[in-house]
Amino acid sequence: MASLLAAALFFDGIHFLISGTGLRGKLVGLVGERAFQATFSLMSLAGIVWLSRAYGQSEYVQLWGQLPALRPLALVVMLIAFFFVVLAFTSPNPTAVGGEALLTAKEPAKGIQRITRHPFLWGVALWSLTHLVLNGDLASVIFFGTFLILAVGGPFSIDRKRKKVSGDAWERFAALTSNVPFMAIIEGRNSLKIGELGWWRVVLALILYGLFIYFHKSFFGVSPLPT
Q: What long-range pairs does 145-150 form, CB within 8 A, spacing at least 24?
């Protein structure tokens, strides 16, 4: 369990204390943007590998225990998570690294950005929260909680950095979007246009979700389907 805790602190630490603070700018000034991105990506990958290995080797300490009765609900939540993640990776994203130029577009908030400006992190949040609740043991709380903390806190860090770099262009974009899904639409700052999501992205999300269900037991030893 000590290794899992250390891995959790390392993974969230590098994101909040390095990438999410002024230290990032100082490091970029020393080594350059590309070198920083490459190094940070390797550190993140190392953190995920460390977390995964430590989680697999941790002893089982039950808290509230597994909740198989919630699996039908979990399947629905995970489908939503897949939509968020797939659309995040396949849609133009002004919040992504290198996406700053999109902030000056005529309509900077289109497609999934109308729903939330942080679709990937919301997908991670739904995934991690679902697995944390369903498993109900200490190691799972630490493992999935690590990603949940990053997914919940990450948008605030990203928004702060983008506002500092892009100024008025970011303010214009943020006024049309929301971190919380559908909030900008509910408040009348944007409107939902399903057609902009792209039918092929929806189909891709459904295919990947189906593969996830089919192979889950083979990869992780547990079927996500209700018994």
A: 145/8, 146/7, 146/8, 146/11, 146/12, 146/51, 148/124, 149/12, 150/11, 150/12, 150/15, 150/16, 150/121, 150/124
pLDDT value of residue 220: 85
DSSP class per residue in 6-53 = HHHHHHHHIIIIIITSTHHHHHHHHH-HHHHHHHHHHHHHHHHHHHHH
Supply the DSSP symbol for 181.
T
Residue 86 clears pLDDT 80, i.e. is over it: yes
Mean pLDDT, residues 68-79: 93
Length of the chain equals 227
Q: Which of 85, 93, 84, 86 is nearest to 158 (CA)?
A: 93
- φ, ψ for residue 141 (rounded to 5)? -60, -45
Alpha-carbon gap, residue 11 to 197, rounded angstroms: 32
Average confidence (pLDDT) over 127-153:
95
Rounded Cα distance, 133 and 149, in Å? 14
Residue 28 has a pLDDT of 79
Q: Which two tokens stand for residue 44?
A: 């993140």
Host H or E run for residue 130: helix 119-135
